[in-house]
């Protein structure tokens, strides 16, 4: 997401020539980083003064049941240094930082902050020692105001009991001015966009005296602009002497802002390197533990008959406003059509309408013989639509069901998974074991609950289910969002395979790189309608960026 | 002044409703001065234990703990208050025993539902069953109270026409405490450090935890202390509203209080108003039975309060939102 949409702004930077779709996602990132666009005052990413060791971790281990989440981890962070923890989903990054913040007690090993190696009891203790943390899932009370959230746990009072919210508001204003992070102290957190909520989280951490700031996947929910802004803030904090540990699996960010990187794999530190001495390919290889296949090998498409025809479609969003507004598109068998666009331009509603999850106002959609305009998800599935939904937690899996059950969610009532209304568990299990193998779903077994899998493996469950029945049309919405590098590569390969087996693929993604590297044809959407269609050979990144921004 | 006006604009709807209700009450008093004061008096009398019990629910659920055992807490306290007073010969010892029993019953819920993370509904039901069982088993007849709970009039406030008469003139101490408790719980919940932390713990406990607040401890303290108000409500029933203990004399008030808590949107003062509304519907029902002129069967008029509850709950549902983490035990990450 980040590297794609910020790109068009950089008119001056040389663009990788289109056409070379073999140019990988990852290699692409590497080239981008050389010309990372940031405002001048931020790109003064000069080294701050890096001082003595502030955080020293030795031999840290933590197991959950039989799973070694962290194994013998040793690392250190110096004052004023930005250290990135890089790793695939499930590599143990969050477990590690949660131990620094006192949320998880280590089984073995020591965490010492400023030379004090007594065990950190709880978050209160961590805060007292100068550790602040911005959590991946924001730890803000949604119905409370910014000021209330900011002082929670260290409230100032009048006469010992009466809450002094005026001083809280003042504090918010001062802090937000000092760090250039604008927030309204009286706004209710619920009403704020995620980017702003994160600012509140950061300010909340900074409102206590912080020597070490931990950021757990801070950019996962941010727009490219917000990401750049955050990286700038991090650099400024480091320059003024705060040490930062941040978790990410986006290589661009690591290379842009970190001084040093620790790479984690399966709970262990597998590498430590100064960012100056590495590049995206090197980091990716360390993360995955093997050379990442950087290019998606695909033959030119051999499109066949149309499988999906959409004509003048109109769909409303949740607020009742026109979201899809006169959308027309055809997808043929054996080709991948990428829908590129800034999020919120009707993509979600389009996908939901196609899947039978949202009512259509007017227009026509046909999948083979089925009229999709009035179809429900059961019918769309049986007409041959495979759907990898955008929100896998909500629409893709049932977290409390086993992997095996999740893999037959749309066919559990049919042979061979059921006979005369009785479930056939052997068939379900065999199916699961076969798909687990085939799709490299990493779990302790097929009866593990799907909710306990890492993001990448959850997504593989969804992809496996939706591809297993050989759909005529595979519709994938943000198929690699929040998924680690290894899984991204895997999912991309499977999508191309589906195409090669003759399925039509509709790929909706906010990652322009993903669209460019996978698609045979690209439809750019803006304002709920297709503003341009092109073959990928003719696609130009800058041009697409301009179209996505509504300039056409 | 500016603060007052922002407060007023924020609370416009409730203020307008309150004003309208007051105007209606005074108008009613003007037209039917013969029955209005006694009806309002009866309404408040009925509302007193409901106010106290609803506050128990509000404190519990604002902390994230469902307290379905209010009924049992009240019943145990009514029993303990009455018999301790009768045996000891001291009203004050009886009242303290009642309140203490409420605290212990609250502590029971705190330990089972919070510390042991037993299902909160089941913990409450268990409390209710224990209460019914114990109080029925140990019930003895022929006891009587050694005295009465004193009535007091508040100077100045009792001079206000109608309102003063209903709330502040010749009312029992417990009635005054109920008013005070509603105001205090409101102030504490929304304007104190304890309140901010309590709401955080009930809305989003992991945020409170990461801010260094001990979630489980705060929940236990709140649920336990709220028990004292349930105790007072029980004491009111057996030692003030009547002067005898009867089997299951709480008669569902503990559950009614939960409905009132919901109708009051988990806010103490609104719950207070809803309890009054409920008391008034009750008073109207009994007034209709007494006049009887309309030839409405009394069985039908007796359903009025319940019909009203259903209607109001149906209207309120969807408009009010329970605390985010209500009913969910908080489990730390590595447990």
TrEMBL record, chain A:
PROSITE patterns: ABC_TRANSPORTER_1, ABC_TRANSPORTER_2. This is ABC transporter ATP-binding protein. InterPro entries: AAA+_ATPase (IPR003593), ABC_carbohydrate_import_ATPase (IPR050107), ABC_transporter-like_ATP-bd (IPR003439), ABC_transporter-like_CS (IPR017871), P-loop_NTPase (IPR027417). It comes from Phycicoccus avicenniae. Its main location: membrane. It comes from the Bacteria. It is found in: Cell membrane. Keywords: ATP-binding, Cell membrane, Membrane, Nucleotide-binding, Repeat, Translocase, Transport. Residues 55-291, 308-552 form the ABC transporter domain. GO terms for molecular function: ATP binding; ATP hydrolysis activity. Residues 1-12 have a biased composition (Basic and acidic residues). It is a peripheral membrane protein. Residues 1-25 are annotated as: Disordered. GO terms for cellular component: plasma membrane.
UniProtKB/TrEMBL annotation, chain B:
The keyword Cell division does not apply. The chain crosses the membrane at residues 43-60, 72-89, 95-114, 121-140, 160-189, 220-239, 251-269. Keywords: Cell membrane, Membrane, Transmembrane, Transmembrane helix. It is a multi-pass membrane protein. Pfam families: BPD_transp_2. GO terms for molecular function: transmembrane transporter activity. It is found in: Cell membrane. InterPro entries: ABC_transp_permease. It comes from the Bacteria. GO terms for cellular component: plasma membrane. Its main location: membrane. This is ABC transporter permease. It comes from Phycicoccus avicenniae. The lineage of its organism: Bacteria, Bacillati, Actinomycetota, Actinomycetes, Micrococcales.
């Amino acid at each position: 997401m980040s590297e794609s949409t910020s790109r068009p702004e950089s008119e001056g930077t040389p663009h990788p020539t289109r056409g070379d779709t073999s140019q990988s996602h990852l290699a692409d990132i590497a080239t981008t980083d050389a010309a990372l666009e940031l405002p001048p005052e931020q790109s003064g990413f000069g080294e701050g003064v890096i001082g003595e060791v502030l955080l020293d971790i030795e031999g840290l281990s933590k197991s959950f049941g039989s799973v070694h989440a962290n194994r013998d981890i040793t690392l250190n962070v110096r004052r004023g240094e930005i250290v990135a923890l890089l790793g695939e989903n499930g590599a143990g990054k969050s477990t590690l930082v949660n131990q620094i913040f006192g949320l998880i007690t280590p089984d073995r090993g020591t965490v010492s902050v400023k030379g004090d190696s007594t065990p950190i009891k709880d978050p209160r203790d961590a805060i007292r020692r100068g550790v602040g943390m911005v959590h991946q899932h924001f730890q803000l009370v949604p119905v409370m105001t910014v000021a209330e959230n900011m002082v929670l746990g260290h409230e100032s009072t009048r006469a010992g009991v009466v809450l002094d919210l005026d001083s809280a508001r003042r504090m918010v204003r001062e802090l937000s001015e000092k760090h250039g992070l604008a927030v309204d102290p009286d706004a209710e957190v619920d009403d704020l966009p995620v980017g702003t909520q994160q600012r509140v989280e950061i300010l909340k951490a900074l409102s206590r005296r912080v020597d070490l700031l931990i950021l757990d996947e801070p950019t996962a929910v941010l727009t490219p602009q917000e990401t750049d802004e955050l990286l700038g803030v991090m650099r400024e904090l480091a320059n003024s002497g705060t040490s930062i540990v941040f978790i990410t699996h986006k290589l661009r960010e690591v290379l842009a802002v970190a001084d040093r990187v620790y790479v984690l794999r399966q709970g262990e530190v597998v590498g430590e390197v100064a960012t100056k001495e590495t590049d995206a390919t090197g980091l990716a290889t360390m993360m995955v533990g093997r050379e990442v296949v950087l290019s998606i090998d695909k033959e030119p498409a051999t499109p066949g008959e149309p499988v999906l025809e959409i004509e003048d479609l109109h769909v409303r969003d949740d607020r009742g406003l026109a979201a899809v507004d006169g959308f027309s598109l055809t997808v043929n068998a054996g080709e991948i059509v990428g829908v590129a666009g800034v999020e919120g331009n009707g993509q979600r509603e389009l996908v939901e309408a196609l899947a039978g999850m949202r009512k259509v106002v007017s227009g026509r959609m046909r999948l083979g013989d089925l009229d999709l305009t009035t179809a429900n998800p059961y019918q769309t599935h049986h007409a041959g639509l495979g759907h990898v939904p955008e929100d896998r937690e909500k629409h893709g899996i049932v977290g409390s069901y086993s992997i095996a059950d999740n893999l037959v969610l749309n066919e559990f009532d049919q042979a061979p998974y059921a006979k005369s209304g009785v479930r056939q568990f052997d068939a379900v299990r065999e199916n699961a074991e076969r798909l687990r193998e085939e799709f490299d779903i990493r779990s302790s077994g097929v009866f593990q609950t799907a909710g306990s899998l890492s993001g990448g493996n959850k997504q593989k469950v969804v992809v496996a289910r939706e591809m297993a029945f050989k759909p005529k049309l595979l519709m994938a919405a943000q198929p690699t969002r929040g998924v680690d590098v290894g899984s991204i590569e895997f999912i991309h390969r499977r999508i191309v395979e589906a195409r090669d087996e003759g399925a039509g693929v509709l790929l909706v993604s906010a990652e322009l790189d993903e669209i460019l590297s996978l698609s045979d044809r690209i439809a750019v959407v803006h304002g709920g309608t297709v503003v341009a269609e092109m073959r990928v050979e003719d696609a130009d990144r800058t041009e697409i960026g301009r179209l996505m921004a509504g300039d056409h | 002044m500016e603060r007052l006006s922002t407060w007023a604009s924020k609370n416009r709807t409730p203020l307008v409703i309150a004003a309208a209700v007051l105007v209606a009450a005074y108008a009613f008093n003007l037209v039917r001065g013969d029955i209005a004061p006694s009806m309002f008096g009866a309404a408040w009398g009925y509302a007193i234990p409901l106010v106290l019990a609803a506050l128990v629910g509000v404190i519990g659920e604002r902390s994230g703990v469902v307290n379905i055992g209010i009924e049992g807490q009240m019943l145990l306290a009514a029993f303990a208050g009455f018999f301790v007073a009768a045996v000891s010969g001291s009203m004050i010892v009886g009242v303290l025993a009642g309140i203490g029993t409420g605290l212990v019953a609250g502590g029971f819920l705190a330990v089972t539902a919070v510390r042991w993370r037993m299902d909160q509904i089941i913990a409450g039901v268990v409390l209710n069953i224990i209460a019914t069982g114990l109080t029925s088993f140990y019930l003895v007849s022929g006891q009587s109270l050694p005295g009465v709970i004193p009535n007091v009039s508040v100077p100045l406030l009792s001079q206000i026409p109608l309102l003063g008469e209903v709330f502040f003139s010749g009312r029992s101490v417990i009635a005054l405490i109920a008013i005070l408790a509603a105001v205090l719980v409101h102030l504490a919940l929304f304007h104190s450090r304890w309140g901010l932390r309590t709401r955080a713990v009930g809305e989003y406990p992991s945020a409170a935890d990461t801010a260094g607040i001990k979630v489980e401890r705060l929940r236990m303290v709140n649920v336990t202390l709220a028990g004292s108000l349930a105790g007072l409500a029980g004491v009111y029933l057996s030692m003030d509203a009547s002067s005898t203990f009867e089997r299951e004399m709480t008669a569902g008030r503990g559950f009614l209080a939960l409905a009132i808590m919901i109708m009051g949107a988990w806010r103490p003062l609104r719950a207070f108003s809803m309890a009054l509304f409920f008391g008034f519907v009750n008073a109207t029902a009994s007034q209709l039975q007494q006049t009887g002129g309309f030839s409405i069967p009394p069985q039908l008029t007796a359903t009025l309060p319940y019909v009203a509850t259903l209607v109001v709950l149906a209207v309120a549902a969807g408009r009010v939102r329970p605390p985010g983490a209500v009913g969910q035990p908080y489990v730390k990450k590595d447990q």
